[in-house]
Design a protein that fits this description.
437 residues; alpha/beta; TIM Barrel; eight-stranded parallel β-sheet; 14 helices; 29% helix; elongated; binds pyridoxal-5'-phosphate
């Protein structure tokens, strides 16, 4: 029997998962084997399917079909083997990795991602806020978790109880944490966040050495690391990278001269890993590259494999006359007799409305343009040129089909945003199917 994560607590809250297939082709059996639906405390997406690794290829497609039967055919496939491959690449080069799984692992699903990374030996995870870390702890994730946004007054006890590591950016925060740890007769850990020039969050670099040092007088707390974040790591030649890294380096040196013990000194996010060898220090904090996407405009040497694909199927096909207005506001008019396909996906699923009359999708190995305005739940595409197109055909919104590929960066470029927003924007209404679990 295969349970997602550690077993007993999970069963006790009533979640039953895919139990690996003794007789996978029996329909009733199948329906029984995935249920993680509408359990309020459960962090997975509204519906999720976890496919065991042995179900690759033909069998896997059959399972996806079965899972989607009786549902709107719009889904995201999350390939955990690709995640592992991206992770191992970073880990091999850089040694110590803190994987960023905030915002539900950039829309991929924080729990399955964290579980796979933990199994692969990730050194730490990072999330933005306490609630995200608590979900992971509740579901059995044991490795260190850094809270990038620190904590708010009243959250200290849960942090200490759950062995979480908040970022701190003032002496006051260290004192608050120490008071609670002392009361609970334990030790709490933290990382000092230093603002070296991004002017967003952290103790100011000019006061960093004295503040970090002062914090060491507190009992019941251990400063495990110091870190900073770069404002322009995507731009290799930006002078601000060198300035920020030099400031950080000087702080590290001063603390080392004073024999201040530090386990972690970390700076580089994905762009820092790809662009700034001199900013690696003794740990890195990748997010986007783990999900197989580059934050850079230019091509990168690292053979990243995108983890997430976003798919749907044609729900209706209509032949329309030349000059027909399509969708809300008639924002597209056919310039010839056309075949228009309706897709059951819209901006409420994370397909940005800014792709209206701009984006394209993949179908039967061809590109097809999104025509008219994307609505909340429906999108129209022009498939006049696609041979043998049929209702039910698979349509790729993000991902590969044949020799063609749409990556999150393509959609980001068209919608004047970044791939992060594209991935985080895929809503909870879209079921996630985990491949290679
Ligand atoms: C402090 C910090 N470090 C690391 C990361 C990971 O960034 P990326 O996904 O570009 O690797 C983030 C993400 O926003 C962050 O806020």
């Amino acid at each position: 029997m295969r349970i997602f994560g550690e077993s007993k607590t999970r069963l006790s809250i009533g979640v039953r998962f895919w139990l690996s297939s003794s007789e996978p082709d029996q329909e009733d059996d199948f329906r029984d084997r995935w249920i993680c639906d509408q359990i309020p405390s459960y962090p997975l997406h509204h519906h999720s399917l976890i496919l065991p690794r042995k179900k690759f290829g033909y069998r896997q497609n059959m399972d996806i079909e079965k899972f989607m039967r009786g549902k709107r055919p719009t889904w995201a496939e999350v390939n955990l083997d690709h995640l592992e491959s991206n992770f191992r690449m970073v880990k091999e080069i850089l040694g110590r990795v803190m994987a960023v799984v905030k915002a539900d692992a950039y829309g991929h699903g924080a729990l399955p991602v964290a579980q796979r990374l933990e199994r692969c030996g990730v050194n730490s995870l990072a999330v933005a806020v306490l609630e995200e870390a608590l979900e992971l702890r509740k579901m059995g994730i044991r490795c260190p978790i850094l809270l990038f946004n620190g904590f708010w007054s009243g959250q200290e006890e849960e942090i200490v109880h759950n062995n979480l590591t908040p970022a701190v950016f003032s002496l006051r925060m260290v004192q608050d944490l120490a008071r609670v740890a002392n009361r609970l007769k334990t030790k709490a850990t933290y990382h000092f966040k230093i603002d070296t020039g991004m002017s967003r969050l952290g103790v100011d670099w000019t006061k960093a050495v004295e503040t970090v040092e002062d914090s060491s007088s507190e009992q019941s707390v251990i400063c495990e690391g110091i870190y900073t974040h770069l404002s322009s790591a995507e731009i290799a030649g930006s002078p601000s990278n060198r300035i920020q890294i030099e400031r950080f380096q000087n702080i590290v040196k001063s603390l080392e001269l004073k024999n201040f013990p530090l386990k972690w000194r970390h700076v580089a996010n994905s762009a820092g890993i790809l662009n700034l060898r001199y900013g690696w220090f003794d740990g890195v904090r990748p997010g986007l590259v783990l999900y197989g996407i580059s934050p850079l405009e230019q091509a990168v040497e690292m053979p990243l494999q995108p983890v997430l694909s976003f798919k749907t199927r044609i729900m209706q096909l209509r032949r329309v006359h030349k000059g027909t207005s399509i969708g809300y506001g008639g924002a597209y008019k056919t310039d010839q007799e056309s075949l228009i396909a309706t897709l059951p996906v819209g901006y409420a699923d994370g397909l940005s409305r800014l792709l209206s009359n701009k984006g394209s999708v993949l179908i039967r190995g061809h590109k097809a343009a999104i025509v008219g305005r994307i609505s909340m739940d429906l999108t129209l595409i022009n498939v006049t040129h696609v041979p043998s197109v049929q209702v039910g055909d698979e349509v790729v919104l993000i991902g590969k089909q044949g020799t063609l590929e749409v990556v999150a960066n393509d959609l980001a470029r068209l919608t004047l945003t970044i791939p992060y927003e594209i991935l985080c924007g895929i809503s909870r209404r879209v079921p996630r199917i985990y491949v290679g679990a």
